[in-house]
Design goal:
single chain, 250 residues, alpha+beta, Lipocalin, 2 domains, ten-stranded antiparallel beta barrel, DUF1579, DUF1579 domain-containing protein
Length: 250
């Protein structure tokens, strides 16, 4: 035998909306800023012979109706809680987010051509086992908001080419970057902070691999005529050196 639910809607002084019936079966209470909403679904008494009133809703239809009412209620609550934004203040904020600042001046100090000396580590060996010379060029793009790096060197006799973009995101107050090269098809994503006293840029990075996410730590330390970049792999509390690149400005 099919069961039915009868749903009635009434207005009460103490609540915005009430869904009522003769016998309460399920009751929900939802709080909003203006008071309490009681939603009750009730099992009706069998209609008398000759009753021409609207047939009660079936169980699925009743819950569909209930879901619709609750959706409207939550939508109204969301609209009520959404703060009004002053267009002038919003425009000022967006201008601030888009304007290069002091951190971007640090990026501009990297612009130029470099001679590079790369040292790479083999797993299990404490000292670098390879040293390869190369070149790099940093260029300023998009009004000084970012710098690009084009890198050319060799690893174990094989040519290596890399390309990176480094910027400073005003919204999160961090340096952010991406790096790609011809040694893989993955993209390394980085972010970090500049130590204002030492001038060292400290970054962390992640990329994909067949073994899952790989995690890295990087430092870029200024020198008299350039900087030194050091790369390490991080696994839990263990940090393994992978290599370093010395950049000598030309």
């Amino acid at each position: 035998m099919n069961q039915h639910l009868r749903i009635g809607i009434t207005k009460r002084a103490d609540v915005p909306v009430s869904i009522l019936g003769p016998v309460a079966a399920i009751s929900f209470a939802i709080m909003n800023g203006s008071g309490q909403i009681d939603i009750q679904i009730s099992k009706p008494q069998p209609p008398s012979r000759g009753d021409t009133r609207m047939r009660p809703l079936t169980l699925p239809a009743a819950f569909f109706f209930l879901a619709a009412v609750m959706t409207i209620v939550f939508a109204q609550q969301t609209e009520e809680k959404t703060p009004e934004i002053d267009p002038a203040a919003l425009a000022q904020m967006m201008t601030k987010m888009a304007t290069p600042g002091e951190a971007h001046e640090h990026l501009q100090s990297m612009v130029g051509k470099y001679k590079t000396l790369s040292k790479w580590y083999f797993p299990g060996l404490p000292e670098p086992t390879m040293a390869d010379e190369g070149t790099a060029e940093f260029k300023s793009i998009l009004g000084g908001r970012y710098v690009t790096q084009e890198f050319h060197s060799r690893i174990n006799g094989e040519p290596m080419e890399g390309f990176g973009i480094l910027g400073f995101d005003n919204a999160i107050d961090k340096f952010v970057g991406v790096w790609v090269d011809n040694m893989s098809t993955t993209i390394l994503e980085t972010e970090g902070k500049l130590d204002e006293k030492s001038g060292v840029l400290k970054e962390t990075g992640t990329c994909n691999s067949p073994l899952g996410k790989m995690h890295y730590r990087m430092t870029t330390t200024p020198t008299k005529n350039g900087f030194v970049f050091v790369l390490s792999q991080v696994e839990g509390n263990k940090e393994t050196p992978l290599g370093q690149i010395e950049y000598i400005k030309q």
